[in-house]
Structures are given as structure tokens and as C-alpha cells.
Amino acid sequence: MNTLQDALRQAATASLDRLDAQMLLLHALGRSPHDRAWLIAHDSDPLPPEAAARWQALQQRRRAGEPVAYLLGEKEFGGLTLKVDARVLVPRPDTEVLVDWALDALPKPGGAEPPRLLDLGTGSGAIALTVAARRPDAQISATDASADALAVAQANAQRLNLPVRFAQGAWLAAAPGERFDVIASNPPYIAEGDHHLVALSHEPITALTAGPDGLADLRQIVTQAPGALRPGGWLLLEHGHDQATAVRELLGTQGFKEVCSRTDLAGIERCSGGRWPGLR
Length: 280
Prior knowledge:
Elements: H1 4-13, H2 18-28, H3 36-41, H4 49-63, H5 68-72, E1 74-77, E2 80-83, H6 95-105, E3 116-120, H7 126-134, E4 139-144, H8 147-160, E5 164-168, E6 180-185, H9 216-224, E7 229-238, H10 244-254, E8 257-263, E9 269-275
Parallel strand pairs: 3-4, 3-6, 4-5, 6-7
Antiparallel strand pairs: 1-2, 7-9, 8-9
Helix pairs in contact: 1-2, 2-4, 6-7, 9-10
């Protein structure tokens, strides 16, 4: 292996995704993983020995299934660059559907009280921090049962200088006595034993699975949320590709109104939500 082009050819021979290989090679070179134009323009440059060693290690880890975001130490989400590692799930583009809905559901600026949003199970802080960046007038809170996950989210908030209040605890127990205009959550929703878990083995299992049918945490949130919503407030939930009907039923049975779902870019019902009765 002599040049950058040789390195990418080797990766292709090893069946490494081309974009993944480009990003990891740039990372090994100490450059931004998004500087692909530079890589193309310099494909005949020699690969320095130190970078070659880093590149080989990154390739091996990626072929073992470790997410690119963990290897790079960061992930773009909602216009923000979030630091991520094995303590938290890698933020997915699908979750931006939930963020957009939360922004739509928040009361407009200028009211008697600042709008309030709660992000349950915040992980890296993706939902809370993106909303905080786009709605600086709102008061944003975020919770997680994992102290390790909260450490990641708090570090992201501090680095991005975004004012989010964090608390540790299981779902609504972490925000006792508080009321919000929007509660948003991307909770665990994969059934225990689901075959998809094999491809997710490097991510924290407690942030992925929720009982035999994947609905255990969704049920708990739907049951608890009415006591933490302001009148007319919204509960918005991300869920699995085949769970929209079940989640809408949970919301309706609990007494939520205007229950509906929103689709992701692939046309899959990715999020469901409902409004708690009453006027704001």
C-alpha cells in the first residue's frame, strides 16, 4: 500500500463501503471526515506510515461491525456535530422526523410562559440539543436512566454552549411534579431476540430492547406522560417500522386526542403522537 488511492482500493477489495472507507482514511490522516474533495484531489499522495497504522486499525474495527460514528468519535445530527461513543446509541437520521414534529408542536414564541420540552432517554442529547439550538426561547430538559449516557449528553451541551437541564432517572420519574408542552422520546423499541440486534451488537443493549414485543417502555411512557403534560401538550414517540398501529392504540386508550403518525423519508410510519386534552 503506497498511495491514498491504493488504500481505498484495498478497502474495496475487503468489501468496505466506499463512503465509510473515505471517511475513515481521512480520519486516519487527521483531516475532517467530510473532506472527500481533498481526498479525491490527493489520491496519488503517499500514505504516511503512522496514518497507515491508524487506517489498518480503523478498517479492522469497522469490518468487525463497529459503527463509523464510534470510530470517528462524532456524528452529525440536525445540523450539530455530536460527540458519541459506545455509551450511547448512534443518532439516526430517522429521529430528525421526531425533532421536526417537536418543533412544530411547541407553542410559538411570545407567550406568557416559555415553551417547555422534555426529551426522555436523551442518549447523546440529539433531540434536546437540536431543539435547543433551533428554539432558544424554549426551556429544554433531558433525562436518561444511564449516568454514562448523561455524561455524553452533558459534554455535548457544554461544548455546543446549549442550555439544557439534565436529570437521571427512569422516564417520568426523573422529572417529578413538572409539566411540559411537549414530551418527546426515542425509547428502546426492539423486541428481545429480534434478529436485527446482531447488527447492533456494538451499541448499548439497554437502549435498544424493550420486552418481548418491544413495546414495554412505550407503554410505560404513554401511561406516565399525562401527569407531566400541560393541557393541550403533545406526547411524541419514535418507534419501530411496524409499531405505529400499536402505539396509536396505546395513545388512544390512554385518552390522548388527535392521535396520528408521521413518516420518515422512506415513507415508513416512524413516529406517533397525541395531544393531551385541554387548552393551553
